[in-house]
Structure formats: structure tokens, C-alpha cells
Design brief:
Elements lengths: L2 H7 L8 H7 L8 H4 L11 H15 L13 H21 L15 H14 L4 H12 L1
């Protein structure tokens, strides 16, 4: 038996979708006080498009029932933290990618993985804790 086939046969997550794996391993948002002053500058101006997307995202994350969501609703404080993480990520994208009015559409880009990696590397360069990077990474991948 080839080594690759053995790896597939022994992969306990083979039948588990990537989306399910991300949700099941999700780390709740947490503020890391010592990272606050080192953090990326969040997006300052929210366009009408982004405001609409944020309202829809809030409804998606905090509504009691949503047939498109995996898992239960989140508390308002969790959602507020997710938005703060997203605005920091979008601020990074605005500066790095020179996007004048970034929106949540950026999360659907074909190169989002590379962008998130650049963001995490920037956070690492700023000596942020891993949990601060994870907050945005999980948001971008969910």
C-alpha cells in the first residue's frame, strides 16, 4: 500500500468538511489588552455598502434561527468583537491593497488565504499574541 493511500485511510477528518472543521474548532473572540495598542489601525470610514453588509452580518450571526448558519447565535458582545476584528482586517486591506472603500466582498476573493496570511504575518511582526490573529483569521474563513 502506498504511503499516500495509508495517510488517507488513517485521516480521521477525511469525511469532515472544511467548513465544519472550522466551526467546530472555533475560538470565541477575546480582547487581549496588551495587544490593543500594537494592533492594526481599524477602518475609519464605513461606506454605505459596508454598513449594509455589517447589518446583514449582524442579523446572520445574532438571530435565533438561521437556516444558513452552522451553530447557534452569538451574543451581542461576541458579534461586536467580530466586527472590530473585521474592521482592523479591512483597515489592513485598505492600506496594503490600496482599496479605497473595502467591503466584506473582499472575503470572497480568490486570494483571500494569501491576504489573511499577510495580515497574520503583519500581526506577528507587531508581536501580537496568536489569539489576536486568530480572531480575524476565523472571521475571514467562516
Amino acid at each position: 500500500m502506498e504511503l499516500e493511500q495509508m495517510d488517507e485511510d488513517n485521516d480521521e477528518h477525511l469525511e469532515c468538511s472544511f467548513a465544519h472543521e472550522l466551526v467546530s474548532d472555533f475560538i470565541p473572540y477575546a480582547i487581549v489588552e496588551e495587544d490593543t495598542h500594537k494592533s492594526v489601525q481599524k477602518l475609519q470610514t464605513i461606506s454605505p455598502t459596508l454598513a449594509k453588509e455589517l447589518a446583514e452580518y449582524k442579523s446572520f450571526r445574532t438571530s435565533e434561527l438561521n437556516r444558513f448558519r452552522v451553530g447557534s447565535k452569538v451574543a451581542e458582545v461576541t458579534h461586536a468583537g467580530e466586527v472590530e476584528a473585521l474592521l482592523r482586517f479591512l483597515g489592513f486591506c485598505q492600506t496594503t491593497l490600496e482599496i479605497r472603500e473595502p467591503s466584506m466582498k473582499i472575503l470572497r476573493r480568490h486570494d483571500i488565504g494569501a491576504i489573511v496570511q499577510s495580515y497574520c504575518e503583519d500581526c506577528q511582526h507587531r508581536e501580537l499574541k496568536w489569539s489576536s490573529m486568530t480572531n480575524c483569521k476565523m472571521l475571514c474563513l467562516s
